[in-house]
Amino acid sequence: MQKSGWATLRSTAGFESRYLLLHSDDGLVGGAQVLLRRLPLIGTVGYISNGPILDEARTEHGTAVRSICDRLVTMARNELAVLLIQPPDGRDDISDELLRRDFRISAAGVAPAATLRLALDRPEDEIRAGLSKRLRRWTGQWERRGVTVRTATEDDLSTVARLLGETARFQGFAPFPESYLRTMYRTFTARDEVQIRLGEVAGEPVVCEVLTGCAGVVRSRLIGTDRSTRWEHLNVSAAVQWDAIRWARNAGYCWFDFGGIGPGSAERLASGSPVSTDGLPGPDVFKIRFGGHLHTYPQAVEWFGSPVLRAAYDLGRRTERGRRLLGAVRNRLRNAVT
């Protein structure tokens, strides 16, 4: 999310980008890509995903963290109404430092706080053995039932956009325009950083999954499904997910990231006891059945420039009407930063 290609993509969803750069006597040692968007009644909202990034081999650890956090606070106070930051993996120290500087723990939910990750650096049979019993049986049935999965090409993007749109509307999100998907495809395909798997039944597209890869991790970004019931009995979504895992392993990735789970599911998985999926959200149950392990991200943090705006946000979370309004704002941001 700190690569320049993401700024190009987000610009199609109404975001501008800013770059904060941190230098030392040895040159560039860190920075952050900040996505900016003006929202009605709020002002300019900034969002940093998986950043800031620091090269601490070239600078003292504590000094670099404090310096980049100073820069972020200055930018927020001078230019923004709200700043949301999701630090990169392993950088809890950035969250801690910002919490000492007028930031607070974020409950905005723009990005997931936890996910499931599946280790891929092992034999496929071992990965298959970690699937639920029902999924293990399915892996031997899809092909003879006419279910196939292939790589989507640029010619398939209209179909992929349609499937993603069906799922977005079903879940209450505004669907991505096809132009957004085409920009993503053209921006990242040349770098081998995006892959779209397309599941079909007798040649008819039923399910798609958009994946991105970086630093040894493949992440499930978007899943689209034909919402009609005629193919439900074939479990095509699971076929596409299993195929995506196999593709990622064969491509040399070390981890498969299922794209986030809800806080209730994460809490139950963190208990360490045998996990019952009773009562958990359906999408999380689906992911759990593939045998991944809980992975938590550093604490997301948020900053509000106005005490009035901050109080209004907190008050809004306590009422049904306020939660709907905040949900609409969150979805608008999430659709652009997924």
Helical segment tally? Answer: 12
Mean pLDDT: 88
Say what the CATH topology of the largest domain is: Aminopeptidase
Our Rg estimate from Cα atoms comes to 21 Å
Quaternary class = single chain
Strand segment count? 14
Main beta-sheet annotation: 7 strands, mixed
Task: Give the count of structural domains.
Answer: 2
Percent of residues in helices comes to 25-40%
Structural class: alpha+beta
What overall geometry do the principal axes of the alpha carbons give?
Answer: globular
* Topology pattern, helix = H, strand = E: HEEEEHEHEEHHEHHEEEHEHHEEHH
Distance between the termini: 9 Å
Strand % is 25-35%
CATH architecture classification name of the largest domain: 3-Layer(aba) Sandwich
Low-pLDDT segments, ≥5 res: none
CATH superfamily of the largest domain: Gcn5-related N-acetyltransferase (GNAT)
